[in-house]
Amino acid sequence: MSAEMANEIKLISGRSHPDLCEKIAKRLGIQVARTISLNYSNQETSFTVGESVRDEDVFIVQSTATGDVNEGLMELLIMISACRTASARRITAVIPNFPYARQDKKDKSRAPISARLVANMLQTAGANHIVTVDLHASQIQGFFSVPVDNLYAEPSFLRYIRENFNPEDCVIVSPDAGGAKRATSIADHLNTAFALIHKERPRPNVVGRMVLVGNVVDKVAILVDDMADTCGTLVKAAAVLKENGAKAVLALVTHGILSGNAIETLNGSVLEALVVTNTVPLGDKVERCPKLRVIDISPTIAEAIRRTHNGESVSYLFTHAPV
Amino acid sequence: MRGTLIFAGSSCPELTDKICQNLGMARADAELTQFSNGETSVRILTSVREKDVFVVQSGSPKINDTIMELLIMISACKGGSANKITAVLPYFPYSRQSKKKSHRGAITARMLANLLDVAGVKHVVTVDLHASQMQGFFRCPVDNLHAEPLIARWIRRNVPRWQEAVVVSKNAGGTKRVTSLADALKLNFGMVTTDKRRGNNMSASMTASMIFDGPARNPNPDAAASQARAIDTSETEDGTPATDASDARGDASAPGSPRVNGNGTHSSESPFRRSDTTLSQSSAIDEIDEDYEADGLEYNDQRAHEVTHGRLVQGHVVPDDFPSPSVSAVEPSVHDEDPMMLSHASSFFSPQPHALGGSGDAGASSDEEDDILKDPKVERTITLVGDVKGRTVLIVDDMIDKPGSWIAAAETVVKRGRAKKVYCIATHGVFGGDCLEQMEACDCIDAIVVTNSYPIPEHKLRNSTKLVVLDLSFLLAEAIRRNHYGESMSPLFQHLMD
Q1: Strand (E) positions, chain A?
Q2: Residue B179: is its pLDDT beyond 80?
Q3: What is the domain count for chain B?
Q4: Are A224 and A174 in contact (CB under 8 A)?
Q5: pLDDT class for B305, splitting at 50, 70, 90?
Q6: Pairwise CA distance, residues B368 & A147, whole Å
Q7: According to the UniProt entry, what is the EC number of this protein (chain A) (predicted)?
Q8: Which residues of B touch A43 (CB under 8 A)?
Q9: A283 at the B interface (CB within 8 A)?
Q10: For residues B270 and B175, which has the higher predicted lDDT (pLDDT)?
Q11: Nearest C-alpha of chain B: how many angstroms from A315?
C-alpha cells in the first residue's frame, strides 16, 4: 500500500460550532468524525477521537462562541494535541474567527500580545496548518511559523451586494480609519463611491465622537468591517450616515460576535440590516434580531479544505466565492 | 524581597496575599478583566523590567479561563522584559489527564506544560502533582512540593489517639501516597477497592481487573478476554498482583495457587454468588477473593479475616440481604457475545474511555469510577483490606472532586469494618458540584481535611461543619524565598517532629 492511499480528509468538529462543521462536511460529501468531548465535574475539558486518524489529513473546525472564548480555545488545543498523539499526518486548525486577534500589538506598556501567544500555543499543541477567515490584522500570519491561509469573506459580500442592490446607488463606508483598506477594496470591485468615518475611541468597547468624510446623500450606505462586537460603533456610524442624508444604511461584517447588549442596540438603531457570515455561532440571535442576515461561509471554507488536501492553489478563493 | 514581584491570578488573591504576608511584601498590581466577547484582558500595572516575577494561579470553576489568564499574564511579563518568570500553581490543572487513557485521548497535562513553556515560564512551583512523573513534561525545572508534612503535623496535633489510627487508601492507585503518610506517622495502613459484582460485558471485567491489579498490568484486551474455561490460568495471573497489594494475603498465595484450578466447581455454592450459575466474565476477581476467604476459614488463618467484603448499590454500602437491583436488568444479550469477538474490542467505538485499555492507575480513572458507582443498575463489591475495627480511620488521596468513592469507602470502613471515626484527607479540595454537601450529609464521615491549594468559596466554608482547611501559604512562601535566594528546597520535604 502506498503512503498516499490511507490519506483522507478527517473532519473533526469542536463543540463551539457544530452547525458550520456539518455544512462543510455536507459540501465535501463526507461525515464528521465521531468524537467525544465532555467536561469533568471540575470543568476540565476531555476529548477523545472515536476513529483512527493515523496517517490521515485532519481538519479541526472550531470557532469561538461569544463568552466562551477560552473554553473553545482550550478544547481546540486539546483536540489538536489528541490528534497529534494519535499519529495524524497533518493537522489543520480551521478557526473561522481567530480568538484574541485584537490583542495583536503592544499598544501600552507591558500589554500582552495575546494573539502571538495563541499562535504559539496552537503550534505547541501540534497544528501544522491554520485556516482562518478575515484576520483582524494580516500581520498575525507572521506570528506563526506554519502556513496560515487567511480566507476572505469579501467575494461573498460582493455577490450579496450585487444580488440585492444596484451598485451605482451604493456608497461603501468604513466605520474607522483602520478598516479603510477593506472598504476601498470592495468599492473598487463594485466601482462605487467610498466614504470614511473617523472616530475617537477613549477605551475598548466605548465609542467617542464621529466625523463623516465623503458624500452619502440619497445613497445606500454600506458599512464594512471585520467584526461586530458590541455594535456600538456600527450603530453610531449608522446614525451619523443618516444625519448626513443617506437613504438607507446597512452593514456587512464578517464576524458577528454580538456580545453584551448588541442585539438590543441593533434593534433600536437606524441600521436597516446587519449582514454577517456564520463564522461565529449565532445561536438564537437571528430570531431575536429581525435585522440580522446571515451569509453562509461554509462553501469557501470547504473549498479551502479540499484544495489544501489535494495540494491545489487556494488563491482562486481570494477573488471568487464558490456557489 | 528585593527585585521580586508576586502577581495573583484571579483564582486565588487570598492565598497570594497570605504568601506575600509571609514574605513581608505587597502583592504586585495587575488588572484582570474580560472583554465583552469573553476574551481575557491583562494589564500589568507595575514595571517588571529585570525583576524576578512569580505568578500565583490555582484552579477555579472556570478552569480554562483561569489557564488562559495565567498564560497571558506570563506572556505579558515576558513581553515586559522580566528577568525570570516562575509559575506558582498550588493546584496543577489537568493533572489527571497525564497519560493516554484511551485510544486517541489527549495528554492534556503535557500539552499544558508545553503551553506554559511557550508563554515564557522559566520555573514551576506546584504542590502534590497527581503523578510526579509529570515533572518530566516540562523543559524547565519543577518543584513539586508536598503537603504531607503539613497534613502529618495536623494529624499529630488534632486527631485524638492518632497513634492507633489506620491510614486507608480508597483505591489501589493511591496506595503509594497512603503508605508514605503511614510511614511518616508510623501507622498501619489499609485499602478499599471496588469491583463490579455481576458485570458481564467486557469493559466491566477489564475495568475491574485494571483497577485491581495496579499499573504493572498489560492492558491488552486479549489477555483480559479470557474465556470461562481459561479462567484457571487467568486467576493465578490476576491473583498474584492482588496478593502484592496487601501483605495480609501473602501467606495464602503460595498454597492457594494449586487449589485455584478446582475452584469453578464450588464457586456456585458461595454465598456471594446469586441466582444464575453462568460463569460471568468478570468472575475472576470475585472468585479469587472468595477463594481467599474460604481458605481463611479452612485453615483458620487469622490474617485472612482482615479482608472484608461489602455490597455497593448506587454508591452506598447495603446489608447482605438487600435485594439485588440488577437481577433482571442483566440481560442475556451480553452473555451471548462471543468472548473471542471481544478481543476486537479495541476497534469498536465505546463511549467509555476506560474500557479502551489504558493503564491501571485507578487514581486517574476515579472520575469515571465515580460515574459507575452512581449507576443504579450496577452492583459492585467493595473490599476492605486491613483491620480497622474500633479505630480511627484516615482516608487519604490527593484530591476530593467527586464524593462517590469517598462516601463508599467511609461507609465500608464504618459499616463493614466497624471503624470508630473517619477523617477524609486530601491535598486539593476541588469539591465539584455538590460534593461537599453530600460528604457533609454522610454520617460515616466525621471530618474533611484539605489545604487551601484550590480556592474554596466562602459560603461553602461557612456552611460546613466538618471541613478543615490547612494553610499552604507558608510552604509556598518558603519555596518562593528559597528559589529567589538560590537555597535548597529539601528541608521543605522533611517531616518536622514537634
Answers
A1: 9-13, 35-39, 45-49, 57-61, 90-95, 129-133, 148-151, 170-174, 193-199, 210-213, 220-228, 248-256, 273-277, 292-295
A2: yes
A3: 2
A4: yes
A5: low
A6: 39
A7: 2.7.6.1
A8: 61-64, 432
A9: no
A10: B175
A11: 31
- pLDDT tier for residue A219 given thresholds of 50, 70 and 90: very high
pLDDT tens digits along B236-258: 444 444 434 344 443 444 444 44
Question: What pLDDT, in 10s, does the model give residues B215-238?
Answer: 444 444 444 444 433 444 444 444
Cell representation of residue B435: 460534593
B167 and B19, same structural domain? no
Q: Does ipTM exceed 0.85? A: no
Claim to verify: residue B113 and residue B162 sit in the same structural domain = no
With a cut of 70, say whether residue B25 has pLDDT above it.
yes
Q: Do B63 and A42 touch (CB under 8 A)?
A: yes
Å from B7 to nearest chain A CA? 14
**Which helix (H) or strand (E) covers residue B158, if one does?**
helix B148-158
Please indicate, yes or no, whether residues B107 and B173 belong to a single structural domain of this protein.
no
Restricting to B residues 56-95, those with a Cβ less than 8 Å away from any Cβ of A are 59, 61-65, 67-68, 71-73, 75-77, 79-80, 93-94
B134 lies in the same domain as B178: no
As a whole number, the mean pLDDT across chain B is 74
Q: Cβ of A42 and B119 within 8 Å?
A: no
Contacts of B76 in chain A (CB under 8 A): 110-112
Examine the domain organization and report whether B329 and B370 are in the same domain: yes
Taking the Cβ of residue A20 and every Cβ of chain B, the question of whether any pair is shorter than 8 Å is answered with no
Separation of alpha carbons B266 and B251, rounded Å: 22
Q: How many CB pairs under 8 A join A and B?
A: 166
Instruction: Note down the domain range covering B94.
Output: 4-146
Q: Per-residue pLDDT for B374 more than 70? A: no
**What type of residue is B245?**
A
User: Residues B349-372: what's their mean pLDDT?
Assistant: 43
Residue B234 domain-assigned (yes or no)? no
Optimal mutation site among A10, A32, A44, A229, interface B, most CBs of chain B within 10 A: A44
Q: How far is B492 from chain A (nearest CA, A)?
A: 29
